[in-house]
Amino acid sequence: MRQVREVLRLKHAAGASERHIAASLGISRSTVAEYLRRAAVVGITWPVPDELGDIALERRLFSPPFGVHESPRPQPDWARLHAELRRPGVTLLLLWEEYRTGQPDGYGYSRYVAARVMWPPPGKGPVPWHNPQHKFE
Q1: DSSP-H helix ranges across 26-77
Q2: Per-residue pLDDT for 125 more than 70?
């Protein structure tokens, strides 16, 4: 459990330095500074309002700045892409160019390649990689 409430108390009520707070709580000074910075951003000082419990306090300080949402970029058909890559003469660059022709707002090439590496969803098996140290007999 984070010790945000104690960090705020020591800083505002006792006037302790970040180094002293870190030493007394057994956490790093950068963690103390981050807690204080986050509290300042959302406007929380000492004393923390009574209606704000530990869980609510952590949610206010550590919630993500945006909600979970779908990717705004159109997804390629990964199964078709992998099938096409097995054909001779077909490269990832050629497939990306076709993708961008049909989807001008689609992924850039570097993100396209990175997403291709991650394509088999978890549980579907790893992407086969070529081992450059493989010795042919």
Answers
A1: 29-42, 54-62
A2: no
Question: In 10 A of CB 122, how many CB atoms?
Answer: 6
Q: Write the DSSP symbol of residue 63.
A: S
Quick one: CA dihedral 50, 56, 59, 60, positive or negative? Answer: negative
Quote the tokens at residue 44: 């929380």
**What's the total number of domains in the chain?**
2
Among all chains, which residue has been given the structure tokens 């490269």? 91
Q: Packing angle between helix 109-117 and helix 92-102, nearest 10 degrees?
A: 120
Residue 128 lies in a domain: no
Rounded Cα distance between 127 and 114, Å, is 12
Same domain? For 56 and 88 the reply is no
Q: Do 58 and 83 reside in the same domain of the chain?
A: no
Q: What residues have CB less than 8 Å from 100, skipping those under 6 apart?
A: 106
- Cα-only R_g, the chain: 25
54 shares its domain with 82: no
Domain that holds residue 27: 4-62
pLDDT, one tens digit per residue, over 16-50 is 999 999 999 999 999 999 999 999 988 888 888 88
